[in-house]
Amino acid sequence: MLLKKTFRYYYWLSIEFVKKQLKIILLSFFLSFILIVSFISFSPYIQTIFLAKKEIIGVVGEYQFNSLPDDIISKISNGLLFINEKGEFIPTIASTWEVANGQKEYRFHIRDGLIWSDGKKFSAHDIDFQFKDVETKVLDDKTIYFRLKKPLPIFPTFLKKPILRFPLIGVAGLYRVDRIKSRYGSIVELTLSPNKKNIPFIIYKFYRTESDLINAYKLGEINQMTLSKKSFADIFQKWKNSTISKSTDYNRLLTLFFNFTSPLLKQKEVRQALNMAVDKLKFKDSGEVALSPIAPISWAYNLNQKNPVFDQFSAEKVLKKAVTASGASELNFFTYYDYLNDADIIVKALKDTGLRINLNLASSEKPDNFDLFLAFWNVPQDPDQYFFWHSTQTQGNIGGYKNVKIDKLLEDGRNTNSLAERKTYYQEFQRVVVDDMPAIFFYFPYVYTIKRK
Fold first, then answer.
1. pLDDT computed for residue 130 by the predictor
2. Solute-binding protein family domain location, by residue (predicted)?
3. What's the burial of 360, exposed, middle or buried (CB within 10 Å: 0-12/13-18/19+)?
């Protein structure tokens, strides 16, 4: 009897509780149902985000949407074509193209079915290279036309730049941009999701200095970084959970530029003597010694380059005679803070020959009153270096170098689309430029990639 009363009590208590809390119970049930369905529906994405392999890479530098490094942009999008290591044009966004009117007209046909990474349809109307002195017409959704004022057989090399739409929306890339974090106009974090299976997610985090980058790695904010200084990389030699790999950055070349308005530096024998005065083996820990302005991985590289000759005694004789004849008193040597260690080695070697050198720190892209200017410059993938050494190029040819033979070789090299002919011209270009010495080419820098295991 007591058991029956107890049961009846709890029964009516439960009924009253349900009546009072019915709305809350129904709402909880509904929300639980929604959460379970959502979890089942989105579980593949949750697994992708939290369980997929991720590379968190630290990068030094302040970048905006239009100035990101090429190796990042090339993951997000493609150009009309790609140039392989043999110098051959490989179609990417373009499927085919025709050349007409003596290499002055180019018509490119766009592949079918291309879409932007945000799902919108891609067409020829989306292409905007903004070339100077090039007439551009979109003939239809699949065809774009370029007309040049002068024939330029290597024009397609300028069409490999990845095509992007703001903000970092690409087409036919291996990755798409999922998230962008910026501060005061500069990107501080960039998340890339793969468009293909079996490649990792990538998160780029940007830091102002190499010291900030190293601290971020120590704190576990990133799991990969690339350093330019061996002394910094050596810090991680004893870290058991990290690996260090060394490689050469063939996109950059440390170079001492001459100002050809200087009567002293106009003399070829003086420039050759300056080159002989510096022992390039002193830079062997900093990078791969450069024998020409074209990288040794280029299809046009001249394998018959001579190794640099270090002869300070002969250099001193030539320089002493030339300085006395010209009346030159002092040479203004400019460089940037990051290259001061290299500059000190060079300045000491030149002073040992009797030259008077005034070392200055540059604060702008190009100092106005330099005689000698030490800086890295970006070596183009294509061997065409017209912009840097042709006498008509006032912006890229920062020293004002003039050489009729060099001009002709650079013109011939870009006025044919035959790779064999181009290779011949550029190999001769290297031979002449190393002999005439418009600048001293020191080294392609080593870089050190530190990665967590």
1. 86
2. 88-395
3. middle
Domain 54-65+172-247: which CATH number of 3.40.50.300, 3.30.300.130, 3.30.420.10, 3.40.190.10: 3.40.190.10
> What does the H/E/C string look like for the chain?
CHHHHHHHHHHHHHHHHHHHCHHHHHHHHHHHHHHHHHHHHHHHHHHHHHHCCEEEEEEECCCCCCCCCHHHHHHHECCCEEECCCCCEEECCEEEEEEECCCCEEEEEECCCCEECCCCECCHHHCCCCCCCEEEEEEECCEEEEEECCCCCCHHHHHCCCCCECCCECEECCEEEEEEEEECCEEEEEEEEECCCCCCEEEEEEECCHHHHHHHHHCCCCCEEEECCHHHHHHHCCCCCEEEEEEECCCEEEEEEECCCCCCCCCHHHHHHHHHHCCHHHHCCCEEECCCCCCCCCCCCCCCCCCCCCCHHHHHHHHHHHHHHHCCCCEEEEECHHHHHHHHHHHHHHHCCCCCEEEEECCCCCCCCCCEEEEEEECCCCCCCHHHHCCCCCCCCCCCCCCHHHHHHHHHHHCCCCHHHHHHHHHHHHHHHHHHCCEEEEEEEEEEEEEEC
What's the pTM value of the predicted model, to 2 decimals? 0.83
Q: What is the pLDDT of residue 20?
A: 63
The two structure tokens encoding residue 380: 């183009």
Ranges of each domain in the chain:
54-65+172-247, 78-159, 252-445
Per-residue pLDDT reduced to its tens digit, 7-58: 555 555 566 655 666 666 566 666 666 666 555 544 444 444 444 578 999 9
CATH code, residues 78-159: 3.90.76.10
Class of domain 252-445: alpha beta
Picking from 422, 401, 391, the residue whose alpha carbon sits closest to that of residue 157 is 422
How many Å apart are CA 203 and CA 56, to the nearest integer? 5
The answer to whether the beta carbons of residues 175 and 435 sit under 8 Å apart is no
Collect the ranges in the chain with pLDDT lower than 70: 1-52, 326-328
Residue 368 pLDDT: 83
Q: Residue 5 has what pLDDT?
A: 55
pLDDT for the residue numbered 49: 47
Peptide bond into 167 cis (omega under 30): yes
Give the type of residue at 380.
P
Strand-pair partners of 60: 207
